[in-house]
Task: inverse folding
């Protein structure tokens, strides 16, 4: 799976974005082959530190077919408990990337 | 029809056959009642401005459900810009009416219910969202005023709904039938209730799993059998019965709060938007309260503008406008008022999309906004009273001013600047009295304190939403308690 990752600027994060992304990548790599890319991605993983998620989504859409949007504790606009967030993001990435859950 | 005229709105109210009581008597024609009518005028202004090209940009929107042009008070916010325009609309209406114009609670309830029913359905496999969408289309197409209805009677504050000796202390389902539910209870402090077409009911607070009967949301027309309304008193309210206009202060507009009793009221299933899903009651409360805390960053600012204007006018009328401390106090009033506006705009600009597609304000900033609203209007009012002087509470009545014998003497000794008619001074002082301790102070002060949740409710939310550990780590990195990983040069 080709994955594009876009962080927000990180001015006031309520989550540790880098740690979260590393955990998601580790999980994904146990299920599928992951290639980090800057364009033509299967999935764009948007990582906002807070619920505002101020990233320009349109720019990410130009680089990826599908989006998974993380904003603080929200995953695709739904609040997810912190201990379930990594798994939820992985599931969303796999589903939107057209791969079966592992 | 998607935009009503004020006259059509008034005609709607005249056709409502509701059970209303005030001063221990049943009120038949409430539209023309002098105590109630100013509050109806305030609501009517939300219709009037939507039809005026000068204001339509902030007063109307394109419906996300039908594409039609609708009153913004029935709109689902589609962007942060929409949230900002909502605040601007509220400031405008506060300026125009100098009082609470009452239609915000419905708008805030629509947006909270739209996103919550969507997520509720996703979690429970229910079909509330589509029912709610159909209800909202009906509201938009008929340009209805809807009362968002949350605060229960609440009985013993130390007990939750299910623990109350009287279960009716919180509105609850008393019967489930094939065709719908029957509810009983009472909602207090209902702003603009009898000036509305419909009531949209939500639970008061987070609920435990065994409190399913209290987890109920629904909408009904105001004239549904079993509904009883008892009009709330306001300071100096009976001045409106005295026949004059000066002593009323705000001669056209006012607010309205109503005790609303649901005495075994039937609700058909198609109007039920939650029944028993206790796990989503807190989401509704948080989102509704969040939107309403944003609202106060607009409406109270508009009323504040009017009060600042009244204070500026009275300094001019009384010849005090050149005093440096007066100028400085007016600056302080503006500073406080614009700070509230800044908070309203900030929580809107930082709004986010919900899973249902409409936009939610930034909850932390909305709570900060409301926390300031619990304080600043009091300080603005204090400064207004400081500058105005004490005559607004000791001044004789307008009947004394008009008295054939003592009137000339009362006027002579109430005159400040010779070129300013004494009645202008009277009217302005009465307006300041009205807004800072009279009928409009219900909306400008006590509603600022308790409306959309009392101060402690915001502090609880602020505690939950601010990440103090993150801030602690920032400090630890700066002083060397922890390694600063960003420094790699």
Result:
């Amino acid at each position: 799976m080709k994955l594009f990752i876009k962080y927000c600027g990180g001015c006031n994060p309520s989550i540790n974005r880098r740690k979260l992304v590393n955990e998601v990548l580790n999980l994904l790599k146990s299920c599928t082959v992951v290639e980090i890319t800057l364009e033509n991605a299967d999935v764009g993983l948007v990582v906002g530190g807070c619920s505002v998620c101020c990233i320009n989504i349109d720019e990410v859409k130009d680089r990826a077919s599908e989006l998974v949007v993380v904003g603080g504790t929200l995953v695709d606009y739904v609040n997810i408990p912190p201990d379930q967030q990594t798994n939820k993001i992985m599931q969303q990435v796999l589903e939107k990337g057209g791969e079966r859950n592992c | 029809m998607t935009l009503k005229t004020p006259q059509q709105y008034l005609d709607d109210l005249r056709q409502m056959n509701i059970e209303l009581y005030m001063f221990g008597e049943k009120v038949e024609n409430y539209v023309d009642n002098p105590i109630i009518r100013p509050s109806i005028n305030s609501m009517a202004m939300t219709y009037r401005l939507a039809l005026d090209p000068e204001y339509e940009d902030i007063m109307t929107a394109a419906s996300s459900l039908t594409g039609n042009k609708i009153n913004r008070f029935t709109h689902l916010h589609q962007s942060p810009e929409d949230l900002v325009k909502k605040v601007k609309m509220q400031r405008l209406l506060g300026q125009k009416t100098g009082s609470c114009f009452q239609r915000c609670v419905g708008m805030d309830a629509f947006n909270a219910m739209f996103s919550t029913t969507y997520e509720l359905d996703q979690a429970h496999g229910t079909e509330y969202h589509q029912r709610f969408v159909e209800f909202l289309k009906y509201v938009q197409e008929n340009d209805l005023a809807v009362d968002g209805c949350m605060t229960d009677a609440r009985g013993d504050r130390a007990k939750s709904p299910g623990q109350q000796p009287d279960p009716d202390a919180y509105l609850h389902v008393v019967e489930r039938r094939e065709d719908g539910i029957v509810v009983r209870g009472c909602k207090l402090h209902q702003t603009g209730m009898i000036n509305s077409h419909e009531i949209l009911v939500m639970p008061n607070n987070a609920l435990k799993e065994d409190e399913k009967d209290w987890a109920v949301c629904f909408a009904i027309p105001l004239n549904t059998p079993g509904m009883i309304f008892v009009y709330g008193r306001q300071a100096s309210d009976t001045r409106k019965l005295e026949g004059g206009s000066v002593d009323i202060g705000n001669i056209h507009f006012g607010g309205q709060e109503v005790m609303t009793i649901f005495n075994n009221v039937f609700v058909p299933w198609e109007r039920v938007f939650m029944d028993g899903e206790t796990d989503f009651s807190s989401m509704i409360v948080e989102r509704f309260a969040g939107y309403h805390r944003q609202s106060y960053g607009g409406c109270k600012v508009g009323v504040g503008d009017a009060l600042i204007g009244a204070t500026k006018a009275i300094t001019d009328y009384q010849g005090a406008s050149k005093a440096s401390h007066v100028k400085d106090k007016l600056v302080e009033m503006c500073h406080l008022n614009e700070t509230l506006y800044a908070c309203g705009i900030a929580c809107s600009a930082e709004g986010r999309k919900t899973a249902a597609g409409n936009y939610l304000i930034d909850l932390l900033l909305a709570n900060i906004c409301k926390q300031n609203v619990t304080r600043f209007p009091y300080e603005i009012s204090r400064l207004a009273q400081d500058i105005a002087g004490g005559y607004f509470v000791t001044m004789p009545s307008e009947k004394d001013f008009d008295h054939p014998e003592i009137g000339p003497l009362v006027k002579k000794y109430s005159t400040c600047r010779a070129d300013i008619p004494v009645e202008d001074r009277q009217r302005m002082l009465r307006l300041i009295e009205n807004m800072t301790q009279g009928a409009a102070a219900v909306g400008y002060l006590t509603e600022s304190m308790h409306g959309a949740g009392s101060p402690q409710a915001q502090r609880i939310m602020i505690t939950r939403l601010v990440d103090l550990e993150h801030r602690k780590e920032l400090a630890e990195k700066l002083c060397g308690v922890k390694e600063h990983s960003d420094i790699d040069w």
In short: Chain B touches chain A through twelve residues (CB under 8 Å). Chain B has a mean pLDDT of 97. The radius of gyration of chain B is 24 Å. The CA atoms of residues 226 and 265 of chain B lie 5 Å apart.
